[in-house]
Specification:
Strand order of the largest sheet: 1-3-2
Strand content: 35-45%
Structural class: alpha+beta
Mean pLDDT: 93
Low-confidence stretches: none
Helix content: 10-25%
Number of strands: 3
Largest sheet: 3 strands, antiparallel
Radius of gyration: 13 Å
Number of helices: 2
Order of helices and strands: HEHEE
Oligomer: single chain
Distance between the termini: 10 Å
Shape: elongated
Length: 65
């Protein structure tokens, strides 16, 4: 999907919003080159609790298939 986005659609940046408690998801996006852009504190309310959100981004030049 990343290759399709960059190569076929010409996208310059792809973002991933991740619950910072999900370490496996973070490892996955970091493995393909995403870099953490920041932590958005108290961004969502879900399941009766306020939750943070980690924002990751991948630029076309940083993509490694």
């Amino acid at each position: 999907m990343l290759r399709f986005g960059f190569d076929k659609l010409g996208i310059e940046r792809i973002e991933a919003d991740i619950d910072p408690r999900y370490a496996k998801s973070i490892r996955l996006v970091e493995r393909v080159g995403f870099q953490r852009g920041g932590l958005l504190r108290a961004r969502w309310r879900a399941g009766g609790e306020v939750q943070d959100n980690a924002l990751y981004g991948l630029l076309r030049p940083g993509f490694r298939a």
